[in-house]
Design brief:
14-stranded mixed beta sheet; single chain; 14 strands; 26% strand; alpha+beta
Length: 378
């Protein structure tokens, strides 16, 4: 192999598109479980002028070529906010893809590790993104399961390469496939009534997304910051990031797939956001909106779909472990049934986060994927 390493210009849209398209057009071209991200969104995430995370992050991107053909890619990221919060000097790696060749994977890591050492970092950890809004965790179980739009898919040989380079486990995430019940579980109904009376909380509804955003858009993301603050490597969303994600994600939500809980003073204490699965649509579109990709995505959003992705559940810390989650699912399940969903995908949950996993105890579930974050000293 005539391997060459190239550093990608982060402000070159053309170079970033090549970086983003490598797994879509080459490495996973015929893989039935890999779900491509939207190319437009990925380029925006990686571009320093478009992603507000670059207010406190810096990044570098590398690709490896074999006789001019792409065979690997990687991103190196330093999140200064997380390092200040933890007191660590840890860089992140992400957007990792490579053919099954140890020379390629080592060339990629040698490049980002050198960059990290030059920046004064002492450890490298990943796969992680700029923030928790980016996919994280390398798949180590569930290679024969369809991925979701919010997660990473990778070949089984990836963790083998990682282990040979001296990485060890940092944390694991687990994912569940959940059977949508024929009705609200009786225990959920009973718990919901108790919680409403005991804490004075209730579900709140809106007739249109604009009204929801105007009233609770900012507060929703501030709640996420509170609820997720103690999770591994969490990077609090800045005001600019919150504005960015409101514009990016809220317009595609269906109010029937959103549940909000407020206290007696109408302060937001819980939120559940879900979306019909976009996995099959993204596979058909190959991550492209045009010329016809948008049709597949629109059908997934508005047409018949048997799976719903549970994008996030966030509950104010003082209300956690008090049954507030029951109100969210008592609210959403009737809509899931009405929409014809048969299954729900939980998306990644930290394996030791019993508060989150306990919410599935009244459902028929199957642990179908496990993913890992790896770490090593530089």
């Amino acid at each position: 192999m005539a391997l060459t390493l190239k550093e990608i210009n982060p402000k070159s849209t053309g170079d970033l598109k090549k970086f983003v398209k490598f797994p879509i057009d080459t490495l996973y071209k015929d893989n039935q479980y890999y779900v491509p991200a939207l190319i437009l969104d990925e380029v925006g995430t990686l571009h320093p002028d478009k992603n507000p995370a670059f207010e406190f992050c810096e990044a570098v991107y590398f690709m490896v070529y074999d006789d001019g053909k792409p065979v690997g890619r990687i991103a190196g990221i330093i999140n200064k906010v997380v390092n200040e919060r933890t007191g660590n000097k840890c860089m992140r790696f992400g957007w990792l893809d490579f053919v099954d060749n140890e020379k390629v994977s080592r060339m990629l890591f040698d490049a980002v590790e050198k960059w990290g050492r030059e920046k004064g970092m002492t450890h490298i950890e990943g796969p992680l993104g700029f923030s928790d809004m980016d996919p994280e965790g390398m798949l180590i179980e569930g290679f024969d399961q369809l991925s979701t739009m919010a997660t990473i898919y990778n070949h089984p040989y990836y963790p083998e390469h990682i282990a040979k380079m001296g990485f060890e486990k940092s944390v694991d995430w687990v994912e569940f496939r959940i059977k949508i019940p024929e009705g609200i579980p009786e225990k959920h109904q009973r718990i919901s009534e108790i919680i409403r009376k005991k804490y004075g909380v209730r579900n709140i509804y809106f007739n249109d997304l604009k009204s929801l955003v105007n009233r609770y858009g900012q507060e929703l993301f501030r709640l996420i910051n509170e609820a997720y603050d103690q999770l591994h490597g969490y990077s609090p969303l800045s005001p600019r990031q919150i504005d960015h994600y409101i514009k990016m994600y809220v317009p595609v939500l269906n109010l029937n797939n959103v549940s909000l809980i407020v206290d007696a003073d109408e302060n937001l204490v819980g939120v559940g956001i879900s979306m019909p699965s976009m996995s099959k649509a993204l596979i058909k579109s190959r991550g492209r909106l045009f010329p016809t990709g948008w049709i597949h995505l629109l059908k997934a959003l508005r047409g018949k779909n048997d799976t719903v992705d549970l994008m996030l559940v966030a509950v104010k810390p003082e209300y956690q472990s008090k049954g507030v989650n029951a109100l969210l699912f008592s609210d959403l399940i009737p809509n899931f049934i009405k929409n014809g969903y048969e299954w729900a995908e939980s998306n990644p949950e930290l394996e030791l986060n019993q508060k989150v996993q306990s919410q599935w105890q009244y459902f028929e579930t199957h642990l179908n994927k496990r993913r890992r974050c790896f770490i090593k000293p530089l």
